[in-house]
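Aim 2 progress update. The chain analyzed this quarter is reproduced below.
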Amino acid sequence: MSHNQFHHYIPRFILQTFSEDFMLKTEGTPTVFIPGIPKILSGGTRRNRGGNRGGNTGGNSGGNKQRIDYPIKIYQVLDQTTTLNGISRAYGVENIYRDISADDCMEFEKLLARLEGSSAKFVRRIWLGEDLSLTRAELVELKRFLVIMAYRGKNRRSQYFDNNFDMITRLSILKHMHNNNISRIQDVWFDNLKWLIKTPCDDIVTEFLRAQDHEPKDPFAVIKGYAGPIHVAELLDFGHMVTHYVCIWQAEEGSEFILSEGCFGSFEGDMGVNFHRFFVVSPKYAIVLVNRLYMWGDMETLPLRKSWFSELHANPEVVYTKRPPPVNVTLNDCTPTDVFKYQRIVVPKQKVYLVNSIQLDARRDYLTYKSSASMYKSLRYYDKIKDKLFYHQYDYSILRRQLFADMNRTHRS
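Predicted structure tokens:
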């Protein structure tokens, strides 16, 4: 590529909601700058309060229009400090498509920007308390966006660039490279990404079902037997996630969700089965993909532990275009114009802290929070349960003391 670009793996429109300077406004409302808060614009030369210089970040949206470089709190895991950083340089990667042709990169970014734009409209309706209805076609594209952003994230991308796979997966990738004349393992990552965003969802699902024709009860047989345009592990992951159903979670008053570099697609599960995939879209809201087996009560028949969140489900109301509504729904009953109506599920504080604990135990480099009080309570909750529930059991005592001091300072002022 001819010039440096910074690409966000957590969308910028979500990052801004974690800034104390951000104000949600309805359509048509002009931007209002609060007196005393600096007007920090990406593309300008003014430094933000975290010390980073704004720059034209490229990102998913393109264009040269100036945007506010909202400062957010970022806890640096390595040096155990919290700084204010502008969102223009937060949660992203420089030159994510290095060694990819400029034309290929530009085409992909346009497709991703279109997908992000349609998903952002629905997320905005979540924030504003508006009606949460999606057509079947819109729902599929929302799921595609969530899955692609999870795949495009730092954790999954680093697996390919660091060649960090178990033996079975590595052998299946080498087989895929041989079948598709790919010379570098890093190129498999971008080829997968490009195929997922350019291929119609119906065709992806068809390919997913074709892959499962190889002994569907034996995942290793699927990995060994499949040959196609995408690496089989990513095809299976995409197929399972798009067949999950959507729930909208709202944090109980007084609690908030947090961000980490893996918060788009972090999960709860057991024995390789995902129960829930979490996509935090603001401090107050998360989109959750719930395993479809819960919809029919089949999850309880499997020899797995009980989910920590199984009471936080609500099936959407579905309005079918073909009338009357079918009793036993088949694919022939479904049309792209069917409407799914969702409700916001209020998540009790303890469960919000539990979702945050999943992020706290899975983080690698960064954490972001808006409310110091909610973050402090999440850390205390994590400390209380980590020995029984989590693998890494990190020590956040320094951050906890920092937060406690910040809250006391705010209280005194």
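The longest helix spans residues 102-128. The chain has twelve helices and 16 strands. These observations will guide the mutagenesis experiments scheduled for the next reporting period.
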